[in-house]
Amino acid sequence: MSTDEREADRRARFEVIARELIDPLRHYLARRTDHATADDVLSDTLLVCWRRLDDVPDNALPWAYGVARNCLANAQRGERRRLRLAAKITVVAPPERATPSPSARDDELLEAMAALRPEDAELLRLWAWEQLAPAEIATVLQVSANAASIRLHRAREKLRDELRKVQQVSGHEQSREGRGS
Amino acid sequence: MSDEHDELRARLRAADPASSLARPDPDRVARLLEDTMSHTETQESRAHGTRQRSPLTWLVAAAAVVIIAGVGVFAVMNRDTGTPSAGPEQSPTTSGDSVTELQAPGAGATTGRCLPPSADVLAGADVAFDGTVEGIRGDLVTLQTTRWYAGEPTDLVTVKGPSEDLQALLAAVDFQDGGRYLVAASDSGKVMVCGFSAAHTQRLERLYGRAFGQ
Is the pLDDT of residue A34 over 70? Predict the structure, then answer.
């Protein structure tokens, strides 16, 4: 096979893989960062996939989520430094985040998720939003499948505990309001 | 058990902030793919010497140019004030790469006699990292970091100083473009010489490992 043919082959392979990846990656990033950063990190992630095409496994998506996760961490590290510096000079508006409309917001769930450790909340997001199985979560987080499975189990238990706590508090408030009126 | 899981998963899914994300525009996807593939092709069609470099290298190079321009202006503006302020400083660049700024030690430090480097002394360094020299231009050496032993990690480190100090440091550490180095600096942001900062060797890496418990 000539160099040109190999190159054409490589391009064709990348196009097939990347077209499958783009939409899930856009969702993954929209859930975790602002619009502009999501666009940048998507480009970075695709670039890594293109350069490391030979390393992309058959089940490419969890692997690509892992790449996006690293690219996002890098972008956010740079952004934090930039904001720290900018904050000395002026007040910077926080990046806009994709949030559900207020009417559809499950405040109890958001509160319970916010009470979890960030690692646990991220596991639950990968499980529920990206709909990954424990073995796939393991690929994203670069841990063993067994560890991902155990952590996911614990994270679910913790979320249930937090939800119970939140519901108890809001239940008390409602009963107090009821007595007061 | 599984029903409970399904219920929890469904509740989480209902709170998915990206559930209403529109489908991507096919034209944009095509452009994105084309941009991605042409990005690396540019690298590959270049001369042999640059084909190993990642696209990030070019970002880093662009960042270095910005830093050099900045330092040039700084040097002109501060000609009367002598050495720039002490301490390792961190600053962002326009490309988003974070940078730790170090200084060459005074000329005296690079010509005196040295004891063999020890892990105990090295452990006192405030900044220590493993990195590759990305460029040496005028009074500035830029390194891209790969591993941090001490100090807050940044993507790049620059070492700058009055020309004669930097020349002395270059001679002491022998910074070569593209070379891999282990570099340590004291709390004032001055690069430690006397064998503490030098070209990467397994032996020096072990010393860094011992000093910083890694």
Answer: yes
What lies within 8 Å, CB to CB, of B210 at 6+ separation is B119
From chain B, pick out residues whose CB is under 8 angstroms from the CB of A75: 96
- Yes or no, beta carbons of A46 and B32 under 8 Å apart: yes
Cβ within 8 Å, pair A81-B33 = no
Q: ipTM value of the model?
A: 0.79
Would you tell me which CATH number, out of the four given (2.60.40, 3.30.365, 1.10.1060, 2.40.50), belongs to the domain B52-211? 2.40.50
Work out the mean pLDDT of chain B and round it to a whole number. Answer: 75
- Does B17 contact A97 at a Cβ distance shorter than 8 Å? yes
* Two tokens, residue B178: 């593209």
Q: Which residues pair with B150 in a beta bridge?
A: B128
In the numeric block, which tokens belong to residue A143?
A: 């841990």
Q: Which distant-in-sequence residues (6+ apart) come within 8 Å of B4 by Cβ?
A: none
Q: What is the mean pLDDT of residues B64-90?
A: 51
DSSP β-ladder status, B98-103 and B156-160: parallel
Averaged pLDDT for residues A5-17? 91
* Sign of the torsion angle spanned by Cα atoms B205, B127, B153, B100: negative
Domains and CATH numbers, chain A: 1-98 (1.10.1740.10), 100-181 (1.10.10.10)
How much is the pLDDT for B94? 53
Distance, in angstroms, between A19 CA and closest chain B CA? 8
For tokens 């509740």, the residue is B11
- One-letter amino acid at A158 equals K
Q: Please give the mean pLDDT across all residues of chain A.
A: 84
* 120-179 of A, contacting B, C-beta below 8 A: 124-125, 127-129, 156, 159-160
End-to-end CA distance of chain B: 43
The arithmetic mean of pLDDT across residues A69-96, rounded, is: 66
Residue type, B167: Q
- Between strands B140-150 and B198-199, the pairing is unpaired
pTM of the model: 0.52
Structure tokens at B153: 């990690």
